Amino acid sequence: ADAAAGKAKAAVCAACHGMDGKATAPIYPNLAGQNAAYLESALKAYKAGQRKGGQSAIMTGMAAPLNDTDIANLAAYYSSLK
Amino acid sequence: ADAAAGKAKAAVCAACHGMDGKATAPIYPNLAGQNAAYLESALKAYKAGQRKGGQSAIMTGMAAPLNDTDIANLAAYYSSLK
């Protein structure tokens, strides 16, 4: 996966998750240093509409346009942050 | 919330999330230092059956017996870890 491409893709995510992966509000998860395989699993669950409740409405919309490469790159980017 | 009570409750969670909140496999999320409000939101979504896909079958079962106090204590415990 390409963390640099993930960083570019993450511009829109930064509003809630922060560019540094530290959430801008406690209801959103920190992503910095999270396991890439988990991040991919979560993004794919949102994309497939398998997560309801909480902020899932926002995340389902965010994940919808992502392809598997985007998802792998985003996961690589955020997991690479300390 | 009572992080100490959360630690006691977390014994069963440690199998996948680690007692230190560092996941034992990359498909599981690290929980150490995660935002407590997000952890509560995620646990309540699993408990309500609002999350499918990924490891949701395991987590739905784990969350089922938890009451709101347990959930608040677990969230306080894991968010308190560095």
How does this structure look, described?
- 2 copies of one chain form a homodimer.
- Chain A has 82 residues and is an all-alpha fold.
- The first copy, chain A, has one domain (3-80): Cytochrome Bc1 Complex, Chain D, domain 2.
- Helix content of chain A is 54%, strand content 0%.
- Chain A has 5 helices and no strands.
- Chain A has helices spanning 3-9, 14-17, 36-47, 56-63, 68-80.
- Chain A is globular.
- The two termini of chain A are 18 Å apart.
- The relative contact order of chain A is 0.26.
- Chain A binds chain B through residues 23, 26-30, 33-38, 41-42, 44-45, 48, 50-56, and chain B through 23, 26-30, 33-38, 41-42, 44-45, 48, 50-56.
Write the layout of secondary structure elements.
Two copies of one chain form a homodimer.
Chain A: H1 3-9, H2 14-17, H3 36-47, H4 56-63, H5 68-80
Helix pairs in contact in A: 1-5, 3-4, 3-5
Approximate shape of chain A = globular
Helix run count of chain A: 5
Distance between the termini of chain A: 18 Å
Report the major sheet of chain A.
none
How large is the share of residues in beta strands of chain A? under 5%
CATH class wording of chain A? Mainly Alpha
**Share in helix of chain A:** 40-55%
- What is the correct CATH architecture of chain A? Orthogonal Bundle
Task: Summarize the largest interface: chains and residue counts.
Answer: A-B, 24 and 24 residues
Task: Write a brief structural summary.
With 82 residues, the first copy, chain A, is mostly helical. Chain A is built from five helices and no strands.
